[in-house]
């Protein structure tokens, strides 16, 4: 914005002082939003927060915004949705691969994904 450095410093100080720039609040809102709207798992949320250079302390606080009950319920809903999409797939191995790849891409932990795969695809 072609501002003098003193003005930039003053503006940033003001934003920090009045809690407009807050890494903790950002991390918590980011985790809640990506989980609720995009149905991301914790692995993907952590990866994206690390990419944005958020501290490990704030990442831990952000993950506490997601209740374990909601987390597992969302995994169930997402799994059921994906299974309905894969009804036309007859090859069990391809079905498993597509199912696992989908959930892993969305950032769900591998042990949860593989447990869910064993539960739904036989």
Low-pLDDT segments: none
Mean pLDDT: 93
Tell me the fraction of residues in β-strands, as a range. under 5%
The residue fraction in helices comes out at over 70%
**Number of continuous helical runs:** 7
Topology overview:
Blueprint: H1 5-17, H2 23-38, H3 42-51, H4 56-63, H5 68-85, H6 92-105, H7 110-120
Helix pairs in contact: 2-3, 2-4, 6-7
What report would you give on this structure?
With 122 residues, this protein is mainly alpha-helical. Helices cover 74% and strands 0% of the residues. It has seven helices and no strands.
Keywords:
122 residues; mainly alpha; 7 helices; 0% strand
In short:
By secondary structure, the chain is mainly alpha-helical. The protein is about 75% helix and about 0% strand.
């Amino acid at each position: 914005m072609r501002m003098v450095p003193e003005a930039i410093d003053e503006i940033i100080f003001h934003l920090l002082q009045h809690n407009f720039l807050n890494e903790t609040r950002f991390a918590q809102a980011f985790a809640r939003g990506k989980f609720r709207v995009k149905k991301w798992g914790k692995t993907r949320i952590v990866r994206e927060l690390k990419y944005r250079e958020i501290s490990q302390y704030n990442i831990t606080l952000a993950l506490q915004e997601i209740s374990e009950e909601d987390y597992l319920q969302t995994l169930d809903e997402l799994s059921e949705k994906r299974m309905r999409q894969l009804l036309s797939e007859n090859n069990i191995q391809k079905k498993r691969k597509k199912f696992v790849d989908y959930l892993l891409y969305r950032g769900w932990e591998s042990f949860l994904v593989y447990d869910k795969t064993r539960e739904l695809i036989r």
